Amino acid sequence: MKNKIIEVKRLTKKYKNESKYALNHINLSINQGSIFGLLGPNGAGKSTFINILAGLVNKDSGIVKVCGIDLDNDPKTLRGNLGIVPQEIIIDPFFTPIEIMDIQAGMYAVKKEENINSRILENLDLGNKANAYARSLSGGMKRRLMVAKAMVHRPPILILDEPTAGVDVELRSKLWESIKKLNNEGTTIILTTHYLKEAELLCDEIAVINHGKVIAKDTKNNLLKILDEKEIRIEFAEKVRSLPKKIQKFCVKKKNNSVILKYKKSQTNTAELIKELSNTNLGLKDISTKESDLEDIFIKLLKN
Ligand code: ADP
């Protein structure tokens, strides 16, 4: 069985003067070594969860354990196990990346002989910028510097709040690479995101929260299996007037030369459908398929 690096039981938070729970008795456990995605719409409770771990918000009740340490017993040691990358970039433009890292290391009382700041910058592809002024860094580099800053005390867990919000496509993939690299080296990653493709690409475990409750938690692959639906669109050379009987029940749209079929992957074999269609005199021209993605599942979960 995998080691649980974070365990949360019946965690509850209601802000002062608010009628609704921000977190309503949630249970969550996160496996060591995973890339864990916390998904949910705005106001779901994601930041509240992270801020409780970070010590910025006090919980009302419930148990929070990180690396076996209980938040109620030893919050300081617990926080030493976390590196937190907030959404907004907080970097003093008048310092160089290595100076920024060394100041941060000082705040965490990292011993001189344990200071690996240059290596962390190298790992995040900022080695050649170590002595440049932070104000001269691009947006993507500044974000990677935020990640580097969170790693100065070598925490086993890195938490990223919306890591690629407002980051353009190219820089996004560079940041993903850095996150994967840290994970490959053994760091457990927790990230919140609105961007479902990001979760689909990066995460191996996912929890969806809504209105302060966990509404789904599973491996990404299992979540993707929830919607057992497949859609194919077929273009014919001829106008489609009728379809073989076996096919008719799957047809959700028929227009001019094309049809869209929807079916359950577990019950219907795609190759057989296509064989059936190629036996018609319509002349198959093109076939495209669409599998359900995390976005479809997310919408379905929130609807329910
Ligand atoms: P998310 O990060 O998923 O967008 P939040 O944790 O920020 O969600 O918010 C959860 C709920 O708690 C929302 O209803 C939000 O309005 C409320 N909330 C968050 N922070 C505060 C606060 N400081 N004071 C009062 N209510 C808050």
Please explain how this structure is put together.
With 304 residues, the chain is of the alpha/beta class. The protein folds into 3 domains: 1-81 and 156-175 and 184-224, P-loop containing nucleotide triphosphate hydrolases (Rossmann fold, 3-Layer(aba) Sandwich), CATH 3.40.50; 93-154, no CATH class; 229-303, Alpha-Beta Plaits, CATH 3.30.70. Helix content is 32%, strand content 29%. It contains 11 helices and 14 strands. The protein has helices at 46-54, 75-80, 97-107, 117-123, 139-150, 169-184, 196-202, 220-226, 245-248, 270-278, 294-303; strands spanning 4-13, 23-31, 35-39, 61-66, 69-70, 82-85, 157-161, 188-193, 205-210, 213-219, 229-236, 251-255, 258-264, 284-291. The strands form 3 sheets. Strands 6-7-8-3-9-10 form a 6-stranded mixed β-sheet, with helices on both faces. Strands 2-1-4-5 form a 4-stranded antiparallel β-sheet. Strands 12-13-11-14 form a 4-stranded antiparallel β-sheet, with no helix packed on it. Strand 9 (205-210) and strand 10 form a beta hairpin. Helix 3 (97-107) packs parallel to helix 5 and helix 5 (139-150) runs parallel beside helix 6. The longest helix is centred in the middle third of the chain and has 16 residues, at 169-184. It is elongated and about 75 Å long. The structure holds adenosine-5'-diphosphate (ADP). Adenosine-5'-diphosphate is lined by residues 15, 18, 20, 22, 40, 42-48.
